[in-house]
Task: structure prediction
Amino acid sequence: MDDSQIVELYLSRDESAITQTSQKYGTKLKRIAQNVLSDAETSKECENDAYLQTWNLIPPNEPRTYLFSFVGKIVRHLAIDRLRHENRQKRSAMYCELTDEMQECIPGSVDVSQEFDAKELSECINRFLDSCSEEQRNIFVRRYWYFDSVTEICAKYSLPQSKVKTTLFRMREKLKKHLADGGFTV
Amino acid sequence: MNEHDLLDAIGGINPKYIKNADKAVSKNSKIARFRSYYLAAAGLLLLVVAGIVIRNNHVAPAYESMDETEEVTIDGAIPEGIEGEVPDVSEGSPMLTEGTTKASEETDGIEVTEGSEEVATEESLATESADSDYPAMVMYDGAVYKDSGEEFIGEILENGLLQVSSYTDGEPSENGQQNFDRSSETKFFVLNDDAIVVRIDPNEGIWRIFLKQ
Result:
Protein backbone atom coordinates (compact mmCIF):
# COMPACT_ATOMS: atom_id res chain seq x y z
CA MET A 1 0.00 0.00 0.00
CA ASP A 2 1.46 3.36 -0.93
CA ASP A 3 1.70 6.38 1.33
CA SER A 4 -1.23 8.15 -0.26
CA GLN A 5 -3.55 5.20 0.40
CA ILE A 6 -2.38 4.96 4.02
CA VAL A 7 -3.02 8.69 4.49
CA GLU A 8 -6.48 8.16 3.02
CA LEU A 9 -7.11 5.58 5.75
CA TYR A 10 -6.07 8.12 8.38
CA LEU A 11 -8.33 10.72 6.83
CA SER A 12 -11.27 8.34 6.85
CA ARG A 13 -10.43 7.51 10.51
CA ASP A 14 -9.78 3.87 9.67
CA GLU A 15 -7.64 2.29 12.41
CA SER A 16 -5.99 -0.05 9.95
CA ALA A 17 -3.97 3.03 8.94
CA ILE A 18 -1.80 2.47 12.01
CA THR A 19 -1.29 -1.21 11.19
CA GLN A 20 -0.36 -0.32 7.62
CA THR A 21 2.09 2.37 8.80
CA SER A 22 3.60 -0.04 11.28
CA GLN A 23 3.96 -2.77 8.65
CA LYS A 24 5.57 -0.43 6.17
CA TYR A 25 7.76 1.74 8.37
CA GLY A 26 7.74 0.15 11.84
CA THR A 27 11.26 -1.26 11.69
CA LYS A 28 12.82 1.96 10.46
CA LEU A 29 10.93 4.08 12.97
CA LYS A 30 11.93 1.86 15.83
CA ARG A 31 15.53 2.01 14.71
CA ILE A 32 15.56 5.80 14.82
CA ALA A 33 14.30 5.70 18.41
CA GLN A 34 16.71 2.92 19.30
CA ASN A 35 19.66 4.86 17.89
CA VAL A 36 18.94 7.60 20.41
CA LEU A 37 17.66 5.64 23.38
CA SER A 38 19.70 2.42 23.08
CA ASP A 39 16.82 0.56 24.67
CA ALA A 40 14.48 -1.70 22.73
CA GLU A 41 11.52 -1.46 25.09
CA THR A 42 11.49 2.33 25.34
CA SER A 43 12.02 2.55 21.60
CA LYS A 44 8.93 0.43 21.02
CA GLU A 45 6.96 2.74 23.31
CA CYS A 46 8.18 5.74 21.34
CA GLU A 47 7.15 4.06 18.13
CA ASN A 48 3.64 3.42 19.48
CA ASP A 49 3.37 6.99 20.79
CA ALA A 50 4.38 8.20 17.36
CA TYR A 51 1.50 6.27 15.76
CA LEU A 52 -0.91 7.85 18.20
CA GLN A 53 0.40 11.34 17.46
CA THR A 54 0.23 10.63 13.75
CA TRP A 55 -3.40 9.56 14.20
CA ASN A 56 -4.09 12.88 15.94
CA LEU A 57 -2.22 14.97 13.37
CA ILE A 58 -3.79 13.45 10.24
CA PRO A 59 -6.03 15.31 9.55
CA PRO A 60 -5.48 18.26 9.33
CA ASN A 61 -2.07 17.28 7.87
CA GLU A 62 -2.02 15.19 4.72
CA PRO A 63 1.53 13.87 4.19
CA ARG A 64 0.64 11.85 1.09
CA THR A 65 4.13 11.97 -0.37
CA TYR A 66 6.21 12.08 2.79
CA LEU A 67 4.52 9.86 5.33
CA PHE A 68 7.75 8.29 6.54
CA SER A 69 9.49 11.59 7.22
CA PHE A 70 6.31 12.84 8.89
CA VAL A 71 6.11 9.92 11.33
CA GLY A 72 9.89 9.76 11.54
CA LYS A 73 10.05 13.36 12.69
CA ILE A 74 7.54 12.55 15.44
CA VAL A 75 9.37 9.46 16.65
CA ARG A 76 12.65 11.35 16.56
CA HIS A 77 11.25 14.14 18.72
CA LEU A 78 9.64 11.69 21.11
CA ALA A 79 12.87 9.76 21.54
CA ILE A 80 14.92 12.90 22.16
CA ASP A 81 12.32 14.29 24.57
CA ARG A 82 12.19 11.07 26.51
CA LEU A 83 15.93 10.99 26.79
CA ARG A 84 16.05 14.59 27.96
CA HIS A 85 13.32 14.31 30.54
CA GLU A 86 13.45 10.79 31.90
CA ASN A 87 17.08 9.96 31.64
CA ARG A 88 18.69 13.32 32.14
CA GLN A 89 21.50 12.06 34.33
CA LYS A 90 22.66 9.24 32.13
CA ARG A 91 22.16 10.18 28.55
CA SER A 92 23.11 7.70 25.94
CA ALA A 93 26.63 7.84 24.59
CA MET A 94 25.25 8.31 21.12
CA TYR A 95 23.23 11.34 22.15
CA CYS A 96 26.22 12.89 23.93
CA GLU A 97 28.28 12.35 20.82
CA LEU A 98 25.64 14.00 18.67
CA THR A 99 25.21 17.02 20.93
CA ASP A 100 28.98 17.45 21.10
CA GLU A 101 29.13 17.47 17.34
CA MET A 102 26.24 19.91 17.15
CA GLN A 103 28.06 22.20 19.56
CA GLU A 104 30.77 22.59 16.94
CA CYS A 105 28.21 24.08 14.57
CA ILE A 106 27.07 26.86 16.86
CA PRO A 107 28.58 30.18 15.98
CA GLY A 108 29.96 32.20 18.88
CA SER A 109 29.84 31.37 22.57
CA VAL A 110 27.43 28.59 23.47
CA ASP A 111 26.67 29.68 27.00
CA VAL A 112 24.73 32.74 25.92
CA SER A 113 21.15 32.09 24.85
CA GLN A 114 19.58 33.71 21.88
CA GLU A 115 16.00 34.27 20.85
CA PHE A 116 15.38 32.52 17.57
CA ASP A 117 12.62 31.15 15.46
CA ALA A 118 12.85 27.35 15.22
CA LYS A 119 11.16 27.34 11.83
CA GLU A 120 13.60 29.90 10.55
CA LEU A 121 16.47 27.77 11.82
CA SER A 122 15.10 24.72 10.00
CA GLU A 123 14.82 26.76 6.82
CA CYS A 124 18.39 27.94 7.26
CA ILE A 125 19.52 24.31 7.59
CA ASN A 126 17.50 23.41 4.49
CA ARG A 127 19.26 26.14 2.54
CA PHE A 128 22.57 24.83 3.81
CA LEU A 129 21.71 21.29 2.70
CA ASP A 130 20.64 22.65 -0.68
CA SER A 131 24.12 24.01 -1.16
CA CYS A 132 25.76 20.64 -0.46
CA SER A 133 26.32 17.78 -2.86
CA GLU A 134 23.94 14.85 -2.68
CA GLU A 135 26.54 12.61 -1.10
CA GLN A 136 27.35 15.15 1.60
CA ARG A 137 23.66 15.74 2.20
CA ASN A 138 22.91 12.05 2.54
CA ILE A 139 25.75 11.55 5.00
CA PHE A 140 24.60 14.53 7.06
CA VAL A 141 20.96 13.41 7.10
CA ARG A 142 21.90 9.84 8.00
CA ARG A 143 23.98 11.09 10.89
CA TYR A 144 21.81 13.85 12.36
CA TRP A 145 18.31 12.90 11.32
CA TYR A 146 18.43 9.09 11.41
CA PHE A 147 21.12 9.14 14.11
CA ASP A 148 23.15 6.45 12.32
CA SER A 149 26.65 5.78 13.55
CA VAL A 150 29.60 6.49 11.26
CA THR A 151 30.10 2.76 10.80
CA GLU A 152 26.51 2.32 9.68
CA ILE A 153 26.83 5.17 7.19
CA CYS A 154 30.01 3.63 5.78
CA ALA A 155 28.26 0.32 5.32
CA LYS A 156 25.22 1.91 3.70
CA TYR A 157 27.08 3.96 1.13
CA SER A 158 30.19 1.74 0.77
CA LEU A 159 32.47 4.59 1.84
CA PRO A 160 35.61 4.50 3.97
CA GLN A 161 35.31 5.72 7.57
CA SER A 162 37.85 8.47 7.02
CA LYS A 163 35.81 9.92 4.19
CA VAL A 164 32.58 9.93 6.19
CA LYS A 165 34.28 11.49 9.21
CA THR A 166 35.99 14.13 7.10
CA THR A 167 32.76 14.94 5.26
CA LEU A 168 30.89 15.36 8.53
CA PHE A 169 33.63 17.52 9.99
CA ARG A 170 33.71 19.79 6.94
CA MET A 171 29.94 20.01 6.89
CA ARG A 172 29.82 21.05 10.54
CA GLU A 173 32.34 23.80 9.79
CA LYS A 174 30.32 24.86 6.78
CA LEU A 175 27.07 24.80 8.77
CA LYS A 176 28.62 26.95 11.45
CA LYS A 177 29.55 29.55 8.86
CA HIS A 178 26.16 29.25 7.21
CA LEU A 179 24.36 29.82 10.52
CA ALA A 180 26.54 32.82 11.26
CA ASP A 181 25.78 34.25 7.81
CA GLY A 182 22.08 33.59 8.40
CA GLY A 183 22.13 35.73 11.52
CA PHE A 184 22.18 32.90 14.03
CA THR A 185 24.99 34.32 16.05
CA VAL A 186 25.14 34.92 19.76
CA MET B 1 20.43 28.70 20.51
CA ASN B 2 22.20 25.59 21.74
CA GLU B 3 23.09 22.17 20.42
CA HIS B 4 19.70 20.74 21.44
CA ASP B 5 17.85 23.41 19.48
CA LEU B 6 20.01 22.68 16.48
CA LEU B 7 19.32 18.96 16.75
CA ASP B 8 15.59 19.70 17.01
CA ALA B 9 15.72 22.00 14.01
CA ILE B 10 17.37 19.27 11.92
CA GLY B 11 14.20 17.27 12.58
CA GLY B 12 12.34 19.74 10.40
CA ILE B 13 14.46 19.41 7.28
CA ASN B 14 12.94 18.92 3.87
CA PRO B 15 11.29 15.45 3.60
CA LYS B 16 12.87 14.88 0.18
CA TYR B 17 16.33 14.85 1.79
CA ILE B 18 15.15 12.26 4.28
CA LYS B 19 13.70 10.14 1.50
CA ASN B 20 16.85 10.40 -0.61
CA ALA B 21 19.10 9.46 2.29
CA ASP B 22 16.99 6.39 2.91
CA LYS B 23 17.56 4.91 -0.52
CA ALA B 24 19.59 1.77 0.01
CA VAL B 25 22.57 0.93 -2.14
CA SER B 26 21.82 -2.32 -3.88
CA LYS B 27 24.64 -4.81 -3.42
CA ASN B 28 23.39 -6.86 -6.38
CA SER B 29 23.72 -3.92 -8.70
CA LYS B 30 27.25 -3.37 -7.38
CA ILE B 31 28.19 -6.96 -8.16
CA ALA B 32 26.65 -6.65 -11.61
CA ARG B 33 28.57 -3.44 -12.17
CA PHE B 34 31.87 -5.01 -11.13
CA ARG B 35 31.14 -7.92 -13.43
CA SER B 36 30.67 -5.53 -16.31
CA TYR B 37 33.98 -3.85 -15.39
CA TYR B 38 35.77 -7.18 -15.63
CA LEU B 39 34.13 -7.93 -18.97
CA ALA B 40 35.06 -4.50 -20.25
CA ALA B 41 38.65 -4.96 -19.06
CA ALA B 42 38.86 -8.37 -20.69
CA GLY B 43 37.50 -6.94 -23.94
CA LEU B 44 40.00 -4.12 -23.83
CA LEU B 45 42.86 -6.55 -23.24
CA LEU B 46 41.77 -8.63 -26.25
CA LEU B 47 41.68 -5.51 -28.40
CA VAL B 48 45.17 -4.51 -27.31
CA VAL B 49 46.56 -7.99 -28.01
CA ALA B 50 44.82 -8.10 -31.40
CA GLY B 51 46.20 -4.64 -32.20
CA ILE B 52 49.75 -5.70 -31.37
CA VAL B 53 49.45 -8.86 -33.48
CA ILE B 54 48.07 -6.94 -36.48
CA ARG B 55 50.74 -4.28 -36.19
CA ASN B 56 53.51 -6.86 -36.05
CA ASN B 57 52.10 -8.55 -39.15
CA HIS B 58 52.24 -5.23 -41.00
CA VAL B 59 55.71 -4.26 -39.90
CA ALA B 60 57.50 -7.53 -40.57
CA PRO B 61 57.20 -7.55 -44.41
CA ALA B 62 58.41 -3.96 -44.50
CA TYR B 63 61.74 -4.98 -43.05
CA GLU B 64 61.89 -7.93 -45.42
CA SER B 65 61.42 -5.62 -48.43
CA MET B 66 64.06 -3.29 -47.07
CA ASP B 67 66.55 -6.13 -47.01
CA GLU B 68 65.73 -6.96 -50.58
CA THR B 69 66.23 -3.37 -51.77
CA GLU B 70 69.81 -2.79 -52.69
CA GLU B 71 69.22 0.86 -53.60
CA VAL B 72 68.72 1.93 -50.02
CA THR B 73 71.85 3.43 -48.59
CA ILE B 74 72.73 3.73 -44.94
CA ASP B 75 71.59 7.34 -44.62
CA GLY B 76 68.62 6.90 -46.92
CA ALA B 77 70.12 8.97 -49.79
CA ILE B 78 68.91 8.51 -53.33
CA PRO B 79 71.35 6.46 -55.41
CA GLU B 80 72.92 7.87 -58.53
CA GLY B 81 70.87 7.58 -61.67
CA ILE B 82 67.57 7.85 -59.87
CA GLU B 83 67.94 11.43 -58.64
CA GLY B 84 66.04 13.91 -60.82
CA GLU B 85 64.17 11.24 -62.72
CA VAL B 86 60.42 10.92 -62.65
CA PRO B 87 59.79 8.27 -60.06
CA ASP B 88 58.63 4.94 -61.31
CA VAL B 89 55.26 4.10 -59.82
CA SER B 90 55.31 0.45 -60.68
CA GLU B 91 55.37 -2.18 -57.98
CA GLY B 92 58.78 -2.68 -56.37
CA SER B 93 60.08 0.78 -57.28
CA PRO B 94 60.39 2.64 -54.06
CA MET B 95 60.35 6.40 -53.70
CA LEU B 96 63.40 6.84 -51.60
CA THR B 97 63.14 10.44 -50.58
CA GLU B 98 63.23 9.95 -46.85
CA GLY B 99 64.82 7.64 -44.28
CA THR B 100 65.20 3.99 -44.91
CA THR B 101 62.45 2.78 -42.67
CA LYS B 102 59.81 5.02 -44.16
CA ALA B 103 60.93 4.18 -47.64
CA SER B 104 60.70 0.52 -46.97
CA GLU B 105 57.27 0.89 -45.42
CA GLU B 106 56.01 2.73 -48.45
CA THR B 107 57.22 0.05 -50.78
CA ASP B 108 55.75 -2.76 -48.79
CA GLY B 109 53.89 -4.48 -51.62
CA ILE B 110 51.61 -1.45 -52.02
CA GLU B 111 51.41 0.76 -55.06
CA VAL B 112 53.02 4.11 -54.54
CA THR B 113 49.75 5.97 -55.11
CA GLU B 114 48.05 4.02 -52.33
CA GLY B 115 51.13 4.43 -50.16
CA SER B 116 50.98 8.18 -50.63
CA GLU B 117 47.36 8.24 -49.58
CA GLU B 118 48.22 6.23 -46.54
CA VAL B 119 51.01 8.61 -45.65
CA ALA B 120 48.70 11.55 -46.17
CA THR B 121 46.10 10.00 -43.92
CA GLU B 122 48.68 9.33 -41.24
CA GLU B 123 49.90 12.90 -41.52
CA SER B 124 46.42 14.30 -41.20
CA LEU B 125 45.78 12.10 -38.19
CA ALA B 126 49.01 13.31 -36.65
CA THR B 127 47.93 16.91 -37.25
CA GLU B 128 44.51 16.21 -35.79
CA SER B 129 46.00 14.66 -32.70
CA ALA B 130 48.37 17.61 -32.38
CA ASP B 131 45.42 20.00 -32.67
CA SER B 132 43.46 18.19 -30.02
CA ASP B 133 46.47 17.49 -27.89
CA TYR B 134 44.70 18.23 -24.63
CA PRO B 135 44.01 15.70 -21.94
CA ALA B 136 40.35 15.03 -21.28
CA MET B 137 39.07 17.78 -19.03
CA VAL B 138 35.78 18.89 -17.53
CA MET B 139 35.01 22.19 -15.86
CA TYR B 140 32.77 21.92 -12.84
CA ASP B 141 31.98 24.44 -10.16
CA GLY B 142 34.59 26.85 -11.46
CA ALA B 143 37.43 24.32 -11.44
CA VAL B 144 38.98 22.29 -14.23
CA TYR B 145 39.21 18.55 -13.60
CA LYS B 146 41.76 16.59 -15.63
CA ASP B 147 41.70 12.91 -16.47
CA SER B 148 44.00 11.07 -14.08
CA GLY B 149 43.92 7.95 -16.24
CA GLU B 150 42.82 5.98 -13.23
CA GLU B 151 39.68 3.93 -13.59
CA PHE B 152 37.13 4.36 -10.83
CA ILE B 153 36.12 1.12 -9.17
CA GLY B 154 33.52 1.82 -6.57
CA GLU B 155 29.94 2.76 -6.01
CA ILE B 156 28.46 4.94 -8.76
CA LEU B 157 26.25 7.56 -7.16
CA GLU B 158 23.37 7.34 -9.60
CA ASN B 159 21.42 9.94 -7.65
CA GLY B 160 24.20 12.48 -7.92
CA LEU B 161 24.82 12.13 -11.63
CA LEU B 162 25.39 15.36 -13.53
CA GLN B 163 25.69 15.89 -17.27
CA VAL B 164 28.15 17.97 -19.20
CA SER B 165 26.61 20.83 -21.14
CA SER B 166 28.94 21.70 -23.99
CA TYR B 167 32.04 20.72 -25.96
CA THR B 168 35.17 22.68 -26.70
CA ASP B 169 38.31 21.87 -28.68
CA GLY B 170 40.64 23.39 -26.15
CA GLU B 171 40.63 23.71 -22.41
CA PRO B 172 37.14 24.06 -20.88
CA SER B 173 36.41 27.60 -19.74
CA GLU B 174 32.86 27.42 -18.41
CA ASN B 175 31.02 25.12 -16.06
CA GLY B 176 29.80 21.90 -17.65
CA GLN B 177 32.18 22.26 -20.61
CA GLN B 178 34.44 19.39 -21.68
CA ASN B 179 36.81 18.59 -24.53
CA PHE B 180 36.31 14.95 -25.33
CA ASP B 181 32.65 14.26 -26.10
CA ARG B 182 31.17 16.15 -29.04
CA SER B 183 27.69 14.82 -28.25
CA SER B 184 27.98 16.27 -24.71
CA GLU B 185 26.12 13.35 -23.23
CA THR B 186 28.81 12.42 -20.78
CA LYS B 187 27.72 12.05 -17.17
CA PHE B 188 29.72 12.47 -14.05
CA PHE B 189 29.40 12.78 -10.31
CA VAL B 190 31.36 14.45 -7.58
CA LEU B 191 33.56 12.04 -5.64
CA ASN B 192 34.98 14.53 -3.18
CA ASP B 193 36.25 18.09 -3.06
CA ASP B 194 39.22 17.30 -5.30
CA ALA B 195 37.88 14.72 -7.69
CA ILE B 196 34.98 13.90 -9.94
CA VAL B 197 34.22 10.60 -11.63
CA VAL B 198 33.40 10.75 -15.34
CA ARG B 199 31.81 8.09 -17.52
CA ILE B 200 34.20 8.36 -20.42
CA ASP B 201 32.70 5.45 -22.30
CA PRO B 202 28.94 5.06 -21.89
CA ASN B 203 28.87 1.85 -23.98
CA GLU B 204 31.49 0.05 -21.93
CA GLY B 205 30.45 1.76 -18.72
CA ILE B 206 33.99 2.92 -17.98
CA TRP B 207 34.30 5.55 -15.28
CA ARG B 208 37.52 7.51 -14.74
CA ILE B 209 38.70 9.74 -11.95
CA PHE B 210 39.32 13.37 -12.94
CA LEU B 211 41.38 15.40 -10.50
CA LYS B 212 41.01 19.09 -9.78
CA GLN B 213 43.80 21.24 -11.29
Remarks:
- Chain A has a mean pLDDT of 83.
- The CA atoms of residues 4 and 64 of chain A lie 4 Å apart.
- DSSP finds nine helices and no strands in chain A.
